[in-house]
Design a protein that fits this description.
The structure holds two protein chains of two kinds. Chain A is mainly alpha-helical. Chain A contains five helices and two strands; from the N terminus they run βαααααβ. Chain B is built from five helices and no strands. The model of chain B has no long low-confidence stretch (mean pLDDT about 95). The chains are: A mainly alpha, B mainly alpha. Chains A and B meet through helix 2 and helix 3 of A and helix 1, helix 3, helix 4 and helix 5 of B.
């Protein structure tokens, strides 16, 4: 079962670049990019930080891919 | 003050150069049959230099930028590269035992080649994972 990420849409809706979001949550731009591209599954702590920074819930950022 | 991106770029450069030096050493040792195709201090020295350069870069970049460059994505890439390099290192024993048994290669050549190949595997895989993650 994999993770569907809505991070890119939420980030763009918030008017942030990957670098700005990375700076705000204390990770590298590459990590944000890999999360958006479903290469890397973030830790619970990072998922919560991202949700907090974007003003949404974790469930609005990520959901389980039921088809896998 | 240097950014986290600069720290990451420096790390990629140093790991890449050191990895390529290790790979070149192994390939040249195997091709020429010379256990020391060029000075062993070159890959070893580059490894030490990488540590010093990254330490200095981290000191200039500051704690916050260094932590951003060494976040959970970095540790995930590093762990994945280590896992693959571990199995490559294990696999090299049976792989090199065949040419050794057939006297196609000398034991004195195999050891430095295996050592540098193990290092090159981790370093170059890490560089590949990091670069791929940025695209």
């Amino acid at each position: 079962m994999s993770l569907i990420s809505h991070l890119a849409e939420r980030r763009k809706a918030a008017g942030l670049t990957q670098a700005q979001l990375a700076e705000a949550v204390g990770v590298s731009r590459k990590t944000i990019n890999t999360v958006e591209n479903r290469v890397f599954v973030p830790s619970t702590v990072l998922a919560l930080r991202l949700a907090q920074e974007l003003g949404v819930s974790v469930h609005q950022l990520f959901e389980l891919d039921e088809e896998d | 003050m240097l950014s986290a991106e600069t720290f990451s770029n420096t790390r990629i450069f140093m790991f890449g150069v050191t990895g390529l030096a290790c790979l070149s050493y192994a390939i040249m040792a195997l091709i020429t049959g010379n256990p020391e195709p060029f000075s062993g201090w070159i890959p070893g020295g580059l490894g030490i230099m990488s540590g010093v350069v990254l330490w200095a870069t981290g000191a200039v970049a500051g704690d916050a930028n260094t932590e951003r460059a060494m976040d959970e994505g970095y540790y995930a890439d590093s762990a994945r590269a280590q896992q693959i390099a571990f199995w490559v290192a294990i696999f090299m024993y049976p792989a090199f035992s065949v040419p050794l048994a057939l006297d196609l290669i000398e034991l004195a050549v195999v050891f430095p080649a295996m050592g540098t190949l193990t290092g090159a595997t981790f370093l170059l895989l890490f560089v590949w994972f990091d670069l791929r993650g940025r695209m």
